[in-house]
Amino acid sequence: MIRSSQSGAEKNRDRIVIGKAGAPHGVHGELRIIPLTDFPERFQALKEVYVGSELMEVEDCWYHKQFVILKLRQCPDREAAAELTGRLLYVDKADAMPLAEGEYYTFDIIGLEVFDMEGSSLGHVTEVLKTGSNDVYVVSQKGQAKQLLVPALKTVVREINLPEGKMTVDLLEEA
After folding, report:
1. pTM, full prediction
2. How many CA atoms within 13 Å lie on the side-chain side of 55?
3. SS3 of 129, please?
4. Residue 121 and residue 142 in contact, taking contact as beta carbons nearer than 8 Å
5. Which residues contact 124 (CB under 8 A, 6 or more apart)?
6. What is the pLDDT of residues 25-65, one digit of tens each?
7. What domains appear along the chain, each with residue ranges and CATH number?
């Protein structure tokens, strides 16, 4: 099973996205955050968070409707909070929420080289589609427009080896 938490831009490769700054909330510098994590409760324990590339201190946190409201020390008023609108919020990958065995973050799966059972390379995972029933890995080869769709099922995905950066799949023959 995959938990969604996307990696950031190249400069934020060692960080994971947990939210996006929305409009200011109130007049005292609070910021409305759209959670982009499967673990919205993580905001409650934050002491600091990267907003874009800036590390900021969290003074307070609470929840309002579908949003997380953060009060950052660096935002004393509504105008300062408004300047952050649209920026992504990151935490270090080392602070990622722990997952159960057999669960992976999307950012861990994207980029893996995919091999068939005979050891032939099929390409690299370029995207993870959330279908509701199970995820689907989009596998692409450089220079080829055709993509391979691999269902994230134990009967198909036989091994994921993150340290080696590879995935082994058993694709059924078409009848």
Report:
1. 0.64
2. 6
3. strand
4. no
5. 111, 112, 113, 114, 139, 140, 141
6. 999 999 999 998 878 888 999 999 999 999 999 999 999 99
7. 2-95 (2.40.30.60), 110-169 (2.30.30.240)
